[in-house]
Design a protein that fits this description.
- 2 copies of one chain form a homodimer.
- With 355 residues, the first copy, chain A, is of the alpha/beta class.
- Chain A folds into 2 domains: 1-112 and 259-355, Isopropylmalate Dehydrogenase, CATH 3.40.718.10; 117-256, Isopropylmalate Dehydrogenase.
- Chain A is 39% helix and 21% strand.
- The first copy, chain A, contains 12 helices and 14 strands.
- Chain A has helices spanning 12-25, 39-45, 51-59, 83-93, 116-119, 164-179, 195-208, 221-230, 242-256, 294-306, 311-326, 344-354, and strands at 2-8, 31-34, 62-67, 97-103, 123-129, 141-144, 154-163, 184-189, 215-220, 237-240, 263-267, 273-277, 329-330, 340-341.
- In chain A, the strands form 3 sheets. A 10-stranded mixed β-sheet of chain A has the order 2-1-3-12-11-4-5-10-8-9, sandwiched between helices. Chain A has a two-stranded antiparallel ribbon with strand order 6-7. In chain A, strands 13-14 form a two-stranded parallel sheet.
- In chain A, helix 1 packs across helix 10 (294-306), helix 6 packs across helix 7 (195-208) and helix 10 packs antiparallel against helix 11 (311-326).
- The two termini of chain A are 20 Å apart.
- In chain A, 58% of the residues are buried.
- Chains A and B meet through strand 7, helix 6, helix 7, helix 8 and helix 9 of A and strand 7, helix 6, helix 7, helix 8 and helix 9 of B.
- Strand 7 (154-163) of chain A pairs antiparallel with strand 7 of chain B, so a sheet runs across the interface.
- Bound molecules: 3-isopropylmalic acid (2 copies).
- One 3-isopropylmalic acid sits between chains A (83, 86-87, 246) and B (192-193, 222).
Chain lengths: 355, 355
Amino acid sequence: MKIAVLPGDGIGTEIVAEAIKVLDALDLPFEMESALVGGTAFEAHGHPLPESTLKLAKEADAILFGAVGDWKYDKLDRPLRPEQAILGLRKNLGLFANFRPAICYEQLVGASSLKPELIAGLDILIIRELTGDIYFGQPRGRRVAADGHFPGAEEAFDTMRYSKPEIERIAHVAFQAARKRSKRVTSVDKANVLETFQFWKDVMTEVGQQYPDVALDHMYVDNAAMQLVKAPKAFDVIVTGNMFGDILSDEASMLTGSIGMLPSASLNAKNQGLYEPSHGSAPDIAGKGVANPLATILSAAMMLRFSLNQEAAAQRIETAVQSVLGQGLRTPDIFSAGTTKVGTAEMGDAVVKAL
Amino acid sequence: MKIAVLPGDGIGTEIVAEAIKVLDALDLPFEMESALVGGTAFEAHGHPLPESTLKLAKEADAILFGAVGDWKYDKLDRPLRPEQAILGLRKNLGLFANFRPAICYEQLVGASSLKPELIAGLDILIIRELTGDIYFGQPRGRRVAADGHFPGAEEAFDTMRYSKPEIERIAHVAFQAARKRSKRVTSVDKANVLETFQFWKDVMTEVGQQYPDVALDHMYVDNAAMQLVKAPKAFDVIVTGNMFGDILSDEASMLTGSIGMLPSASLNAKNQGLYEPSHGSAPDIAGKGVANPLATILSAAMMLRFSLNQEAAAQRIETAVQSVLGQGLRTPDIFSAGTTKVGTAEMGDAVVKAL
Ligand SMILES: CC(C)[C@H](C(=O)O)[C@@H](O)C(=O)O
Ligand SMILES: CC(C)[C@H](C(=O)O)[C@@H](O)C(=O)O
């Protein structure tokens, strides 16, 4: 079980260290190797995703990723910015299936912006296609407009696209995931405006016929953004494209109020996966020992489940996290009166102890 | 003052009737003419935006629009579906500047999904570009993929694009609107991934230099979707493209919990405008006399302000709406214990009385 460890920037190092503590405590035969990624890799090697890091990632069964990015890299040319490392890994490893659970932990209901009755018990799974859509579509760039409102003016453009097999494979992922849950899939599109998403809807419907036991419905993305606020618990599995998924998965995770708790997994066809917390690199609190490591620890659990075939170990970690929450331990981001404030390392230690 | 009245489908007829009641009560020299639009126009003329309706709209100073759409038209070919009428009006009249206020009325704080302290006093203005972006970009369609993950497969595609003058003109609208408010503009983009929105950000920054008194900041769309949930009151004016604006303006209006109260305006360079409620045609309650006419009545107020140069009359309507809320009158969508439930027509009558 080869794990590439890419802590990245900001709080990445701190939170990944805690996840490794937890993995070590499982006493399983992992082979772990670390490499630089993001801004720190740019500083050392002149590129956010150096060849050596990419090679390590490709040869691993799974990647444990922290976070990348810092305001100080904002002025760099786009191809050199930290987040290009994430896009590069997704593309080079073909990580097309992104799993973003939005779960509201019983003990953290109060952290949500939403009224408790709307959010308590929330358990949605957003499945975002991650290697297609307007993120990677060619052509893109700048040019002189040939037509439109201002022919002759300078314009910039991008191409949104999805091919049938790309939609089919993410559809299968969604329907199969729904089978293990409440057997409901909401496919989010903008078929009323976009050719790409009329096609998406058509293909989803077609694939859905192979899953007569799973209920499929379709929703426009603007409506989905509303319904997530109005009645988030009405959703079970949401499947959508790369761009809409970027927006909706972040909206959904913020609904819980405890994004510091939410893991994610990005898988390819061989179940190789990249596992990272749903939150960012939080440069403002980096190095202070206050970041919440639980999302990264729970990402490690997803890694055990999806890429390393260690379901029992995954469940041990998840139970241990539940248990530290039950003990009232909280990093500052999820702290509330009556609970015990702890730092990053203490939280990691507590999870190890609870194992 | 020529007003084209396009009630449309579903509850459109009922809510527009109340707005007209209110306009009539102002005793101003309006010339109003009605026409069919949307599904009802398709049934009568075979097209959701008949030539005669478009002509009427073009020749008017302003359009008072109800809503379009019904499940029963879902099976029609896309060009014949009701929502194409809206897209056609926007395009043909060049209505590039969409104003979508998200206001939380003091008396309706309880209707929100959000905790009262997060939403009370909310007053955001979302300015959405409405005639560009991937909504209208060419080429678009289906074809055989020449490259990408599955060359040779069937694919669908769309083109996202913005030209410099298109971004400039919506930027000016946003900065000028901000000058009348708290002088803060948040431009929402996805510059870390899209060429179109790197350009958007560059041009916004450039235009911003002409407004040194207005603070401009930039935010990625995924982060904006989160911050709207976390701390909506941190925003003042948000300016963004057509697609992101579609999603964020709906999310923001649902945050208030009372979308039945929210008007909208879509203007062109000559201040001709289309005015419509932010909500849809609600076919499930059509004809029952229970729809909330206030968003449409407030849209008529915006019409008086922006297109008809009748600021005093606009304010009279807005004050009257505040007053009926103060009297405790509520349509079912905003009803809560201790208030008085009224129907569509009663609500319109109450506004007239309060004028
Ligand atoms: C950093 C950025 C390119 C990335 C994306 O848009 O996919 C991020 O927002 C995410 O969701 O992982
Ligand atoms: C009906 C649809 C085409 C339209 C849009 O996407 O613009 C609607 O959602 C809106 O926001 O007015």
